[in-house]
Structures are given as structure tokens and as C-alpha cells.
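Take one protein record:
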Amino acid sequence: MVQVWHHQADVVIVGSGAAALAAASAAAAEGVDVIVLEAASEAGGTTRRSGGAMWIPNNSLMQAAGLTDPRNEALALMAQLAHPSIYDPDSPTLGLSQHAYDLLAAFYDNGADVVDALTAAGALDLIILPPLGYGTSPISDPDYHAELPQNAAPIGRVLTAQTPPGSFEWPGVYLADGMIAHVQSLGIPILLEHRVEHVIAGPLGSVLGVVANHAGQKVRVRAKRGVVFATGGFTHDPRKVLSFTRGPIFGTGAVPQGSGAFLDIATGLGAAIGNLANGFFFQVALEAALESGGAISQPDAFVFLPYGDSMIIVDKHGRRIVNEKAMYHERTQSHFVYTYNEFPNLVQIMIWDDPVMQEPTFWPWRGGVPFPGASSPWVMTGNTLQELSDAIAARLQSLQGQHGIAAAVGPDVALSPDFATNLAATIDRFNGFAATGVDLDFHRGETPLEPAWQGPSRGAPNRTMTAFTPAGPYYALLLGAGTLDSCGGPVINQSGEVLRPDGTSIPGLYGAGNCIASPTGQGYFGAGGTIGPAIVFGYLAGRAAAQRSIGLGN
């Protein structure tokens, strides 16, 4: 049967976030025709609502600043973060499979060159992420995992998009828009509201093109050399999240189009699947997730770093459960603890006092804590700890039965009868830690980054901790687990080719970004830990697709 093609190109890119746009730029640099298909009504994907940073080891900007990033140490750091349960520093592959090791090596070996190529082409305009003013380096603040002995380059790996002076937009807007403008300047069409639903395979199993739904019509798009999927994760599909993700998820910051279409498509083609249990995690204001069915877009609902020096996070018994200043990806996983037929930390409670509430300093990580004079419907208050406890109990009761993406406020999400008593004892213990500067329970403030990203503080000797005031008012915010996006799906090789379980590639099929089994495993390497690998492997996939020969079966 002769196919009728509505559009044709050498390389078809599905999606329009950082990975997709990098793939489009790479393919065009090889001198081939490219088409980009985007399901949404605007381009940019989740990248456009991100912080616009990218974690790139051994990048040219850090080298220009006199910083080094030795390969062996960088690979050891990434291997430990990506696969901590099997990491072995004495193994030739650091305890990883050869395939997993090769992917991390490809990221290190190609990252700087990819960023340089995109910068030279005009797609990127980057700087090293500047310090926020409370660290010790004039170049940048420390890496998320600067405390690990393998981290030989704790400064300089994080690059970010240049933003206009005085801008309050998330830098992801400028990162995405710059890449979009570059792709459009190359004459590459970005066809919006074209949701790809199927691929068309040839008699020899190679991918010939895709079928997209546009305004209710089926649009067939021919790919003479290959199709690169960069469509984001599956966190807007509750069934997938509940089935695959290893913890209860209330919300996501990913764009609503992310329902895991590529996972379904690639599975149907016999692709190997991996890393489904993992995601890029952060804490979300619970009620924001419940109000929207899990779709999070309000900036104050993203609790990346809980704000304040006199602030703690407790469970339903009024006890601290985590280092509140730990980075969001690691801290959020405290919600996933499962004991005695329940998730005891499913809903957590952030509590702070009035000096934190009245702190007037602008700070990017203020999420959940309003500026002085502003209000939030999600924040509860009480003049005493008992009044605050009563308000929290009433709020939880009012939320009973409400659902996020793959978690709900069930009957076991209620304060224990001794919550107020325990909370008072918890605060008293915390105040003692603040006086000595040593958190004996969770080691708050002991990593290089935590004091730097604490922001304004009255705390001494540990600037992440100040004693709570003995009198109210006090405030509280309910927290749930969220994902920036999922990071599991079809398995790729170093060129972005999608693999079958036997290790052979599916001809003409490529993937990058959050829709594939991320080479980062369960790790979040640092600020930009999603976009960095997405851009690098997107570029490699686009280049490989463009270089693929056109022959029999294509």
C-alpha cells in the first residue's frame, strides 16, 4: 500500500523542549532537512517553565575561569549518584553495567563540545550560574553534591541562560526562546498542535515516519533518515505514575502534554525499557496540586528549598523527619518511606515563625512563604502552637478524599492526638541545635551548598538554623511529593538510538530527554541536572539521525 505523506523531511523531531531543539540544530548542521512536531499550542516544552540551567561537566566556561573537572572523578561522582546501590569505585566500570557506564562517559566526553557547538551556532547564550550572595566563591555557588569526595569540581558545572537585567521571568523562558529562534532562523518548521500518536514502520522494521493528530485529522510525516522523540515524561498519566514511579506523587511541573506517548510507542516496537521507577523530584505545596489535579504552574507552589532559618518540616506526629535544607531531589524522597501498610510521611508539614514570615529580602527559593504583606490560601496560622495544630488538623480534614496525580489525602492523613505536644518538644530540641550550630538529628547546614542557599539568616553559628520565637504567630504549609518530570522509558545508546532488549537498535528511531531511560539513573547531578543531559543526548541523537544512510527499508 502506497503511503500518502502530508510532510516530508530527512529528520523528524517530536517535541520542542531543550532536547528536541538541540536535536533539530544538530541535524540541520549536518545539512539535512528537519521538521519539528509539537503537541502543544506553543513551543518550548517543560524547558520553557524551568530554571533554565544545565549541568555540563568540564565545560568551556569553567575551563576559561581556571577550573578543572578531571574525567575519572567526574565519572565516579555521576556513577555514585546514578546507581548508588551498585557503585564500586574499584571496578573498571565503577560497578555499573558497561552500557550504563558508556552513557555517563558519553555525557562527559561530549557535553562541552555540544554546548560549544550550540553556542557557536547562536542557539545558546550562557554564563556560569552566578552566586546568590551568601557563598564563598565569586564564580558560583557550590554544586549540589559538593561534599562528596569524588566531587573534584564543585564550582562551575552549572550554566544558565543569559537574562535581561531586572527580569523576573524564569531563565528557562530565555533558554527555550533562544533555541526556538535559532531553529526557526534555519528555516526549520515547528508544527504546533501536532500530537504524534503512532510511528510508521517499514517491512524491515525501520521507522519510516510518524502519524500526528492535528485538529482531529491524521497527518502523516515522512522521515527519510530518522525520527527523534524528545516528548517529555509520563507524569500526566496517573496510571503510569501509579504503576511505575516508586513513590506517591501529588503533582508535577511538567507541561500537560507529557503523558508518556513515546513509552507506549516504543514498547509497541519492542524497545527495551528502563529507569521507570525514578523521576526528578521536588516538594510541592500540597493544596496547589490538589486544586489542579496535579498540574503545577504557580511559582510559589514549587518548594525547592524550604525558606527560613527558624523553620522545620514535621510529620503527622509533630516530629522532624528530614534535613530541611537538603536538596529537593533527595529531600522529597522522604515522602516515599513505607512502613506498616502506610506512607507515614505522605503529607508533611512545613512550620515557621513570624520573623521568617516578615523577612523582606527577595529570594528565589521562597516557595510557599509569601512576602510580607502578601497572603496565600495554602498557608495556615495560629497565635500559639496549639492554635496552629488545630488549624492544620481542620485543613487536613477538609482535604480528605482529594486526589493529586497518583496520591490522595486518605483517612490516615490526620494529625496524631499528641501532635501539638510533640511539636513543642520538637521545636525545643531544634532551638537547642540552633544554639550550638549542630543538628544532631539531620546534620542541617553541614554541606557547602546549604549555608549558601539558605538566603537571609539571623542564625549563628549555623546560618541555616535560628531558634523559633517563644511567642506566635506561627505558620504552616502542607507539602507533598512532586516531579519536575519522570525520567524512564526506552533505553538508548551513546548516539541516542533506541535499543531492543538484545542490544540491537530499532533502525531510524532515536530518543532524548525525559522520555527515555535517563543516563542519570536515580541521580540528580545538580542544578540543571535534567536539561544538561537532555541537550547533550538530544544533540547526539539529532546528529546520528542526520548521518544515517538512506537505503533499503528506509
Observations:
- The mean pLDDT is 96.
- Residues 280-483 form a domain with the Flavocytochrome C3; Chain A, domain 1 fold (CATH 3.90.700.10).
- The two ends are 15 Å apart (CA to CA).
- The CA atoms of residues 285 and 411 lie 20 Å apart.
